[in-house]
Each structure stands twice: as C-alpha cells, then as structure tokens.
Amino acid sequence: MPIKLLHTSDVHLEAGLAFLGEKAIAHRKLQLQTFDKIVEKIISEKFDIFLIAGDLFDTPFPSENVKITVFDQLKKLADNKIYVAIIAGNHDRLEPGSVYHDNNYLKLNPEYIQIFNQTDKTAWEISALDLTVHGVSLTKQKDNSSPLDKITKSNKTKFNVALLHGSVEIGNENANNPLSVSKLKSAGFDYVALGDWHSSKKISDKPAVWYSGSPELINIDQVGSGNVLEVVIDNTVSVKETRVGSIEVLKVDLDITGLKTLNEINQKFRELSLKDLDKKFVELNLIGLRNLKISFSTDQIIEMFKDKFYYLKLKDKSKLKLTQDELDDYPEEFLIGKYIRLLESKKSEDYSQNKIIDEAIQLGVRHLQNK
C-alpha cells in the first residue's frame, strides 16, 4: 500500500526579518498562517506522515505564544492519527532548555509524534506503515561533520526515509553540515527529505533526494520557495511540488534608456502590466543606458514604488552613456567639463569601479550645477 508523505523545512518561525521593516510583524504572522495551512492540507488530504526537516523555528528558544500555536497543530495531527517526524536544524538546534526539550512537546503522543531530540536515537520504526524514519537533529549552528554518517538503512521495514538538515556538497568544500551527493545516492533510502536550502530543489531522481525549501518567503533571493513536497512511496517514488506560500519573488528588468523623469519611469513600469504586486517580493533591475541629465535618483524611485509592492529591492544595472552633445554642453575649459573628463579617464575594465565612477559623475554634475 502506498505511503503519502508531506515534506517541509525551514519555516523559520519568529525570524527577525529586519529587512522588511514595519512589515516584519505581519510577515511573521503570515509564516504561522502558512504552517497552519499545511497542517489543514495534511489532514484534509489524508497524508500518512508529515516530515519537518529542520528549522521549523528560527531559534532554539521561540516565544511561548509560537510554541503553543505549533504544539496545538502537532497535537491536532496526532489526534487525526497522522505521524509526524521532526528534526532540529542549525537555527532551532538542540540546546539545554530549547524548544524540543519543552515539557509540552515531550508530552505529545509518542505513537504519532517523533521529535529526534536525543542524539543517540536516530531511527523511528512505524510498523503500521512498514516504514523506518531516520532523523538526525543538529546541536550546533555550524559543524563540518556530516549528519548522514550517523544513520544507516534498516532492514526491519520495507521502506526507509531519511530526514537530514545540511548542505549538499556541490562545488562547496566548506559546506555547513555537509552532505555528499554520492553517499546520499548510495545510502539505500527510498526518500531523503532535506532541509537547510530555502528553495525547492531536486538533488537526485533515483533515489529521490529533495530540498523542500521554505513554505513562505523569508528573503528576496528565494525564487524557488513557497512550496511543500508531496511524496508517494510505493514500488516507485513520486515527488510533486505544491505551492502553499502567499508571497512570490518577481524579478523585473526596466530599461531606462532615454528616460529622464520619474513620471517617465512610472509610465514605463506601468507598460509591463504586472499583476498582484502587493503579493510580490520585487527585485527591480534598472538596465539600459542613462544620460547625464536625468532628474531622478534610485532613492526617489524606491520612494515612488515602495507602496506598490509587498517588498522592493532596487538594483541599478544601467550604464552612463555620455553623448557628444552632452560633452559639448560642458566644455573642457569649465570646471564641470574638467570634472567629467577627469573621471571618465579613470575608467577601466573593472565594472564595479566604473559603476562608482558613473555615480560620482552624475552626483558631481548635479552638485556643481546647483552651486
């Protein structure tokens, strides 16, 4: 009989989210709501087991309110006879007095709830599912040892699932809690549920090794977050990414070539016809060529757009293009002309350095014109 699993990780409840400013409080509430949504999905769609691959919390010591909220959801799952396996990640790691040693959590029905909070117990046999879940909780924020080395496939049950939190070694020799791809493939598990990376990612097809990613966005660079993984184990293993998050990342390129005013910028953006921007983490990239006489700054663009988006990150990737007409407007005999030509002569093949020079030219020209 097939086993239905739902895999999540890196919920990071109570994350600081300082970059969100005044929206941080609301986003923390949204993270909790998304976790509640996952639990309701598990119950309504009759999953057999819920796998949480670390960093459910952002800290080993979450607030009492959040602890109680999560406890109630875990109890609800147990009351519905749904199994739950949880490991601690490097953020909610096992420490004396930490959340996974909390008295309430220790009282959760052990028939259905397994929190791997003892470093010497790494296997949970569920005879009703003919399944062994192998889990390794972390005790340090940074560790160069591999959690995979602490578990071995069991021959007592038909199916074996591993629950690990760490970073696969893909061109990264200094990975935290490193996981060897070749060892993950050869360990003999039917499914390996990974946590630590915040975007969904398949590491291997056969055997199935996956990062679920965070179910709700916690940073602007997480294009592949907002999902949970629905896994069915039978003679074969199938994995399906299912969206549960409310907020998405949207990367937009805006060509500002020839634009001189904020109104022109706004009109150009409106022509993109983007929808539901209030639910988007937007990375807005300014591209193209800008002239010397633009009347706007990046700060002004941010101020103009900030209320349109859930969150805005602006990157100016445009390049300053000095036309001959512009240079003619500032002859070399005058101070501004000398200033422009001096800085232009400093340019090299270094893109970052040239970007600073371009900004210095525009700021300097504005300043000198206003004196």
From TrEMBL:
Decide whether keyword Hydrolase is in the record: yes
Keywords (A to Z) from UniProt: Exonuclease, Hydrolase, Nuclease
Q: Which InterPro entries match?
A: Calcineurin-like_PHP (IPR004843), DNA_Repair-Maintenance_Comp (IPR050535), Metallo-depent_PP-like (IPR029052), Mre11_N (IPR041796)
Recorded protein name is DNA repair exonuclease
What GO molecular-function term can you cite, just one?
exonuclease activity
Q: Which organism is it from?
A: Candidatus Dojkabacteria bacterium
Q: Which domain of life is it from?
A: Bacteria
Calcineurin-like phosphoesterase domain span? 4-199
Which PANTHER family would you find in this protein's record? COMPONENT OF ATP-DEPENDENT DSDNA EXONUCLEASE (PTHR30337), PHOSPHOESTERASE (PTHR30337:SF7)
Q: Establish whether keyword Hydrolase is in the entry.
A: yes
Q: Pfam families, alphabetically? A: Metallophos
